[in-house]
Write a structure and sequence with these properties.
Elements (H helix, E strand, L loop, with lengths): L6 H51 L8 H10 L13 E2 L2 E8 L2 E8 L9 E5 L3 E5 L7
Antiparallel strand pairs: 1-2, 2-3, 3-4, 4-5
Length: about 140
């Protein structure tokens, strides 16, 4: 007598595995998008905190232009930022900076509206964070 699985039994197991994958994969993608969005908000808050701290120590003036801000804030002792963010991509979001001595606007836009994030974020002078539910990918 032969022992083993019949073709029908193997097909049932494959169907069950496919069903479980169909349920799990969208949930994993949603979790990744949620994590990317949370990381983007945290990055904006980090930059805003650095700029507000700098302004507090410099008579309410913010740190120059976006081209020099990252380097300038990182070169101080102690540094206000530990890495460059403006113009960089962090966790699927591209960070854009508009900074002058009177204020700032920092944006985070997803690199892809289907895999990186579904919302864009912006933080302005004073640390006011806002969300745009319409996805406009960076680029």
């Amino acid at each position: 007598m032969r022992r083993g699985f019949t073709l029908v039994e193997i097909m049932i197991v494959v169907a069950i595995i496919a069903l479980l994958a169909a349920i799990a994969i969208p949930n994993l993608l949603r979790a990744r998008i949620t994590a990317n969005e949370s990381a983007a908000q945290a990055t904006l808050k980090t930059i805003s905190t650095a700029l507000e701290t700098y302004a507090g120590a410099n008579n309410g003036l913010y740190a120059g232009s976006a081209q020099t801000t990252d380097d300038y804030l990182r070169s101080m002792t102690p540094p206000y930022l530990n890495k460059a963010y403006c113009g960089q991509t962090e966790n699927g979001y591209t960070i854009g900076c508009t900074i002058n001595t009177g204020g700032y606007t920092i944006t985070a836009r997803p690199t892809s509206c289907t895999t990186s994030g579904t919302r864009s974020f912006q933080i302005t002078t004073g640390g006011v964070l806002s969300t745009d539910a319409t996805c406009t990918p960076a680029g």
